[in-house]
Design brief:
6 helices; 4-stranded antiparallel β-sheet; 6 strands; alpha+beta; single chain
C-alpha cells in the first residue's frame, strides 16, 4: 500500500501534468515549485519521473511544455547557419518574424557527436527573453564549440514560409554554405 508521501508525490505529479497540459506556453520550474509549495529540485525530479512514464514533456530554455502527439499539417526543415554570438538575436528574430518556430539548436561536436538543445521560440518576446537570459548568465552558445556553425529545426505552416526564412537568412549572411 502506498505511503502518504507516495500519494502526495503522485497527486503533485498529476497536478503538474494538468497545469502543463492546460498552459498555452512554457512554465518555469520555479513557477511550478511555488505553485506546488516544493523546491525546484522536487519539480525537476517529478518531471523526470513523468518523462520516464512517457509523458510528452519538453524542457526548454523558457520552461516546461506539454507536447502531446497530434496530427499536424505543419512542416519543418533543418537549416544550417553560421554567425557570431552577436548575431544570435538577429538570426532568431528573423525566423520568428517570418512566422517560423525555432524548435532547437543542434551542433556536431567532434568528441560528443550530435548535441541538441530544445528552444521552442515562437515569437519576438520569447527570443528577447532567451537572449536576455543568455546575456545575463555566464552561459555560452553551443555554436561557440563549433566555430559558429549550427543547425536549427524550423517549423512553419507551409514550405513557402521555410523558403522565405532560408532566403532571408542567406541575405543576412547567416545561412551556412560550404
Amino acid at each position: 500500500m502506498p505511503s502518504d508521501r507516495q500519494k502526495s508525490g503522485e497527486a503533485r505529479r498529476e497536478k503538474i501534468l494538468q497545469t502543463l497540459s492546460q498552459s498555452v506556453g512554457p512554465i518555469t520550474g520555479r513557477s511550478l515549485a511555488s505553485e506546488m509549495n516544493v523546491s525546484r529540485q522536487v519539480i525537476v525530479s517529478d518531471i523526470n519521473l513523468l518523462k520516464a512514464k512517457n509523458e510528452p514533456i519538453l524542457a526548454t530554455s523558457q520552461g516546461y511544455l506539454y507536447m502531446p502527439a497530434h496530427p499536424t499539417s505543419r512542416v519543418s526543415r533543418l537549416i544550417v547557419c553560421k554567425h557570431t554570438p552577436a548575431q544570435t538575436e538577429e538570426e532568431l528574430m528573423l525566423i520568428v518574424r517570418n512566422r517560423g518556430i525555432v524548435k532547437n539548436v543542434v551542433i556536431e561536436h567532434p568528441v560528443y557527436g550530435e548535441m541538441t538543445a530544445s528552444l521552442m521560440l515562437h515569437n519576438q518576446t520569447e527570443v528577447k527573453r532567451f537572449t536576455d537570459q543568455l546575456a545575463s548568465s555566464e552561459s555560452v552558445l553551443l555554436s561557440v564549440l563549433t566555430n559558429g556553425i549550427h543547425m536549427h529545426e524550423i517549423e512553419a505552416e507551409h514550405t513557402a514560409i521555410l523558403d522565405r526564412i532560408e532566403y532571408e537568412l542567406d541575405q543576412a549572411g547567416i545561412l551556412y554554405k560550404e
